[in-house]
Write a structure and sequence with these properties.
alpha/beta; Rossmann fold; 6-stranded mixed beta sheet; 6 helices; 31% helix; globular
Length: 190
């Protein structure tokens, strides 16, 4: 079962259908995100390339939801940036969420958010003025495509965003929306 927010057009799974934290982590434990895997590095570069073009040198960032095998941080550090790692299951250092960052990346993360409005507010609060939030997530196109979409088959995916949702978030958090690709979004905090 899916619900649709009338304000922001977010499609979401009601809480009663969510996996337990243990089941969710067990699913993530199966992921094989290896920093040495050329295919995975190329996948992440789709966000890294356009983000790095926007950044000054030697910026401080956060890999939010980095998972068990952080790779995005490795690639951005190779570009001269410094990154902190946060993940509620693998790198749960809550003190990092009190810091300010030049940029924050969340690749294949926002679809797992339990409270997107609160979590996006926290992310934008951590961004310095003119900071960048880089996201990778597949977008909802329409109802017919949604029903046949592979993305909904992953039971850890409980939030599904559309372009309308990101326009809403940009307006709500006073950010400029940059759609780089059909699953790569950059938001610049003004």
């Amino acid at each position: 079962m899916y619900l649709n927010c009338l304000n922001c057009k977010l499609v979401f799974v009601p809480k009663c259908y969510w996996l337990s934290a243990e089941e969710e982590k067990a699913t993530y434990d199966l992921h094989e995100n290896d920093p040495q895997d050329p295919g995975y590095r190329q996948f992440l570069s789709r966000l890294i390339r356009p983000l790095v073009e926007k950044l000054d040198s030697n910026q401080k960032g956060l890999d939010f939801g980095c998972g068990p095998g952080p790779t995005l941080s490795v690639l951005l550090e190779e570009q001269g940036h410094q990154l902190d790692l946060y993940d509620p299951f693998y790198y749960n250092d809550l003190s990092l969420l009190e810091k300010k960052y030049d940029f924050i990346c969340a690749t294949e993360v926002v679809e797992h958010m339990h409270d997107p409005e609160r979590e996006f507010a926290a992310l934008f609060k951590m961004l310095k003025r003119d900071g960048w939030l880089g996201l990778m997530t597949k977008l909802v196109i329409d109802q017919q495509a949604f029903r046949q979409w592979h993305y909904i088959r992953d039971l850890t995916h409980i939030c599904f965003y559309s372009l309308s949702t990101f326009k809403y978030l940009a307006q709500k958090f006073n950010a400029e929306l940059n759609v780089v690709a059909d699953d790569v979004i950059l938001l610049n905090r003004k």
